[in-house]
Every structure is written in C-alpha cells, then in structure tokens.
Write a structure and sequence with these properties.
The protein is α/β, with parallel strands linked by helices and about 450 residues long. It is built from 18 helices and 13 strands. The protein folds into 2 domains: about 100 residues, no CATH class; about 325 residues, Rossmann fold. The strands form 3 sheets. An 8-stranded mixed sheet has the order 3-2-1-7-8-9-10-13, sandwiched between helices. A 3-stranded antiparallel sheet has the order 5-4-6. The protein has a two-stranded antiparallel ribbon with strand order 11-12. Strand 11 and strand 12 form a beta hairpin. The chain starts with 5 loop residues before the first helix and ends in a 16-residue tail after the last strand. The N terminus and C terminus are likely disordered.
Length: about 450
C-alpha cells in the first residue's frame, strides 16, 4: 500500500469527487452498469422518436426543439454531457438521502466519498501497534489514524499522580489518565471530545483537580463491571478509530533505583525526585500482560515505541514480561521515536544513544530496528524547564550496529519542542514503506561482532 505525504494527502482529500474513482471503492463497476442501462434505455427511446419523427407530421417549431440547426455530433456531445451531469447529481443526492439515517450526526458534514474512503481504505492500512503513554502517545495516534484504522495503543498503567492517583486509591481501578488521552486522540469527533475528555475541574469539593475523562472512565467501569469493558464501551460510544489496551490489568507500582542507590516508589515520586535513574522495575514484578496486547504485538506489521517520558511512560510497558517477550518474537518492524527534548528528572543530558542504551538495559538488545530522531532542533529552551533539545548526529548509534537512524523534521512549527502528529506519522510510514531517504546506515559489524537481531 502506498502512503502519501500529509500535504499531498490533504490536497487529494479536498477533491472528494475524485475519490469515487479510486480503485477499491466498489463504486465504478456499479456506476458503469447504471450508465450502460441508461444508454440502452436512451437507445430504445431514440428508435421510437426516430420512427415518430419520420412518420408523423410535426410543426415547424420542432426544427428548433430538436436542435437541427446544430451538427449531429455537437448535439450528441451536448446530450451526453447533460445526461452524465443529471445522472451524477441524481445518484449523489439519492445516496445522500438514503444514507442520512445511517450517518452519525456529527459526521454529516463529511462527504459520502470521504466516508467510504475512510471505511474501505483505512481498514486496509497496516496493523500498527503504538506503545507508550502520556501526551507523546496521543500525539502519535492523532497522526497515524489518518493512514490506518488498524491501530492498537498499548498504554502504561503505572501512573499514580494527580487525578489518576486519587481515583486508583479510592476506586481500585487501573490508571485511567493515559487511556483517557488515547481515547480523546482516536475519537472520530476528536476536537470536541479532546476538549471534553481533557477538561479539568478547577473547583468543587471532591471534583477539583479531576479531569472529566478520568471520571467518565471510572463511571463506565462501575456501570459495565470492569475496567476492560469500560474502555471498550467508551471507545464504542465515542467511535474510536482503533483499539486501546492497557499493558496489564493488574495493579502495579513503578519503582526506580537511582545512581545513588536510593529506591523511589511510585511513578509520580520518580518524576518529582529528579535523580538519575539506574534501574526501573515493577511491583509486583511478575505481572501478566494483557493477552490482547500480546496478540496485537505478534500480529503487527509495525510497532512504534514512544515518544513520551522514557522512564515513566515508555519503559513501564516494556517491563511487563509478556510484552517484552512478544516484542522479541514478532516479525514486525520496530521503531523507537526519540523525544525532541530531555525531561528534567528523567533524561537530563540524554542524546539519542542514551535513550537506546536505557531501553536495551531494561529489555536486552534487538528490541528496536530503527530510531526516528528530530533534526529540526529548537533554540535553547526556557531555563525554568531545566530541559535541552535532544541533538542528533550520524555517530549517535555507532555503538548500536544494526539499528537504523532516521533523521527528519518531526516537530510542530508553532511548538518546536513537541512532535507534530502529521509530520511524525508521515516519517514513520515512509520508513515502513522503505521510501525514507534520510536514513543513516550504521557500520555493519564483523561476523564475530554481529548481534542476534530479529529481522523483518
């Protein structure tokens, strides 16, 4: 399947009339049959009219009504053009009327061609699994959903801060915060749903600090009986494009050991502690991976890890043993998206190589085939952030032979320290299609150095 760049993709999509002629729309064959039937009817009518014209005496006005002052070929082209125009308008309006009852109210401003295109073509897109959490994962999903509806988001459940932490303590549910952001990103009515799900109450006893989306998911879990069903039903109600799965359904706590041998418990505390992290682990350590998440990884065509907070959003998923094993067993291409900027308290001073080293230290070598890194580096970030742009060079992965480094402009112009969903998705799909032209091929190791890597 061929994927276009976002600008070309948007330009073509604006001309919805052309979509009726796309291969695989299952429209042209029936349109041709309709025209053939109309042509047969016109031929029959023409025979009758010709016979009447030759046999019956007609007033002189028929000379003008039958356009005899024009050449016959001109009359023929004129009537064919009028016929095609009226047939096209009639068929379009007829289908619009018939389908009105089956189209969601919020999607009625979308053309039928767009609706059919999205349904047929996006369902044929590659099976993509995105692993991570937080804002980074939702940004990635917003871009990828324009290319395929075969999306699976595997989301960390280690979050224990803010609204999510309070709900985990009070209701004993799986962390809903990152799931909420994915639902908002993949909902068909995304702009409104994103605002609604991300809305955070600023006042009210018991409500202050909670986001509406978190409360919605917890309420749905009470109605349906369990958290897994709540996510499924919430996705169905909001018409989410793709599937959202927690990496595990068990109650887990993220813990870290710093370089000073201090043990920090809890995802929220790890971020606030701001110490250099040496090791990361889950409590309990033998949690069972969500079986559907494992199945999605094994069946995937492409797996994207990140972007997001390395130690608190990305790695907690990879620490789930079942998922880690599936990542080594799958034949899918595995791409890691490096963050645009370092995160204070987690990745201070990190470059691309340090991100890969942290992943391989917790999972083993071979879990990543390629790395996407931003080369449109922003100027110095505000000092209060204690953050720096993640720089990239062709030597960054010299110690990691076999991993491809893809450098591309993947940041938003209005926000140069955040990924742009469309740019990022287009870069990843170019890499998947083998059409990437900015790929740095690392030095090939000698046979005795060759690591055991999974190949696509």
């Amino acid at each position: 399947m061929v994927y276009s760049d976002p600008m070309t993709h948007r330009t073509i999509r604006e001309h919805s009339v052309l979509k009726w002629l796309y291969p695989g729309m299952h429209i042209k064959r029936w349109l041709a049959l309709l025209l053939f039937g109309i042509a047969l009817m016109g031929l029959g009518i023409a025979y009758i009219l010709k016979e009447a014209y030759l046999q019956a005496p007609l007033p002189g006005t028929f000379y003008y009504l039958t356009l005899q002052f024009m050449p016959r070929w001109t009359r023929g082209l004129l009537f064919i053009s009028l016929s095609l125009s009226t047939v096209g308008i009639a068929v379009y309006k007829l289908n619009e009327s018939l389908l009105y009852a089956f189209i969601r109210p919020e999607a009625r401003d979308q053309s039928m061609a767009d609706a059919i295109y999205n349904k047929r073509f996006l369902s044929r897109g590659p099976k993509i699994v995105a692993i991570g959490g937080g804002t980074g994962l939702s940004t990635l999903l917003r871009g990828l959903k324009a290319y395929t509806s075969n999306l699976t988001a595997i989301v960390t459940v280690a979050d224990d801060g803010g609204s999510t932490g309070r709900l985990r303590q009070e209701f004993g549910v799986v962390a809903p915060g990152d799931m909420r952001q994915c639902i908002a990103a993949l909902a068909e009515s995304e702009p409104l749903m994103s605002k609604l799900f991300q809305y955070r109450f600023t006042e009210g006893t018991g409500l202050e600090g909670h986001s509406f989306g978190n409360l919605f998911i917890v309420a749905m879990s009470e109605v349906t009986g369990n958290f897994e069903a709540a996510i499924h039903e919430a996705s169905r109600v909001l018409n989410v494009r793709g599937t959202i799965l927690p990496s595990t359904l068990e109650d887990v706590t993220l813990s870290a050991r710093t370089h000073e041998d201090e043990v920090v418990y809890g995802e929220h505390n790890i971020s606030e502690r701001g110490a250099r992290i040496k090791d990361l682990y889950l409590n309990p350590g033998n949690v069972e991976a969500h079986p559907d998440a494992v199945r999605a990884v094994l069946d995937a065509d492409l797996i994207v890890i990140g972007p997001g907070s390395l130690y608190t959003s990305v790695l907690p998923n990879l620490l789930v043993e079942g998922l880690k094993k599936a990542l080594f067993q799958t034949s899918a291409m595995k791409v890691f998206v490096c963050n645009v900027a370092t995160q204070h308290g987690e990745t201070d001073g990190f470059g691309v190589a340090e991100h890969i080293e942290a992943i391989e230290r917790h999972t083993g070598k071979g879990v990543v085939h390629a790395v996407v890194a931003n080369n449109n580096v922003a100027p110095q970030l505000p000092e209060a952030w204690h953050s720096d742009p993640v720089t990239v060079s062709s030597d960054d992965l010299s110690e990691h032979p076999g991993i491809r480094l893809v450098q591309a402009d993947v940041v938003a112009e209005e926000n140069r320290y955040r990924h742009d969903p469309q740019k990022l998705a287009a870069t990843i799909l170019r890499l998947y299609d083998g059409r990437d032209t900015s790929t740095y091929e690392p030095r090939r190791p000698a046979p005795e150095e060759q690591p055991l890597l999974l190949t696509r």
